[in-house]
Amino acid sequence: MAPADTAGLERLVRTVRSDAEQRKRLVCNACFLAALAQLHPEVVAKPKGERRWRREELDALAAATAGRIDDADPVHVIVGVDDLNVNIRYMKGSLVYLRAETNPPLRCMMYSSMPPPPGQEEPSADDSADGPKTPGQDETADLPTGPAKVLDDADASHALVRAVLERLNDDPTIDTAGGGVDADDPEAVATWRAARVRESLTAAHGAHWHVVHDAKPFGAAVVTSGEGRRVLAQRGRYSFLVWRHSSSIKSPLEAIRRRIRADLPALRRGARTTFLVVCAVYALWYRAMCREEEEEGGGGGAGGGTRPNDDRTAVGIIAGAEPRLTTFLCAAGESAAPFAFFALAVMFALGGGGTASAIGARYARAFARRKRKSA
After folding, report:
1. Which of 18, 69, 181, 369 is least buried, going by the fewest C-beta atoms within 10 A?
2. For residue range 93-113, what is the model confidence (pLDDT) as tens digits?
3. Which of 13, 239, 226 is nearest to 110 (CA)?
4. Burial of 52 (0-12, 13-18, 19+ CB in 10 A)
5. Domain coverage including residue 233
6. Do 186 and 311 fall into the same domain?
7. Do 283 and 212 fall within a single domain?
């Protein structure tokens, strides 16, 4: 592949929204692009060529993308040809939303589920009302009649199908929607129905339920908490994918580690800023509290170095109350200066410090600045 073609390939997929660290964003971008190139090389070769996508093709693309992601937590992948409408809760630091500049543009959302709330662990499939189907069960018994219909219930329990159809058959009224939904806006009504489905299932069976809907085709590769917890239904032009999944509960140490990893970019910025402030304060204190020893002439004086300023009226409380600490800090300033300068240079060079890097270097040099011995 020519260099120009390689550059165009890199620009084909971009990140629209994400709260994940940069490495994860790049990995998810590469996985989606690799899956698209493998299954549909003609789209990658000619991205501006118009194409009509079917749900089965988008399902396969989502599955191929999910199969390439190696993450500690299960990842849900949704691929569509329009801005995705989702009613979900996701783990912090796991969301990546991509857009491929094809015709029509493809959207890909990847995220991980949150763990269940304390004291609300998911029951096993056999004990749950939304568990697997019972052998010999009448598939149509007790199912509500109405405009909503089931598209795929291969992994859905009878109770789940019934609950979803009941909510999708609802229409917004003053009592149910409180007058906040425009009944003449199909998108607003579909969003209201998706929220009703999730709220009713959460109230009946606990967290966490995920609902994705759209009027255009979309595919998904999702993970469920057990059998019988995924259903695809339709009302009018809108398809609704409903499934249940919560990530496993981690130990306190694992939770802390994941939180630190999710907040790592902010922690790095905070560490650089804190180190810069400490260096600046130390430099100002050093210049005010310490003075250079000068050679006293005739060879009888001691060599250079620093010591606390003996002018108590100018020095302040610290030198009077803690002379040993002041002496130590004045002597340590010279030794710490090269290390402070090096640490600041590395931290800001790796983090793109810019103006802050120059300011940090200036204060670091102040630690090392010493008066020359007088003649």
Report:
1. 369
2. 899 999 999 999 999 999 999
3. 13
4. exposed
5. 3-250
6. no
7. no
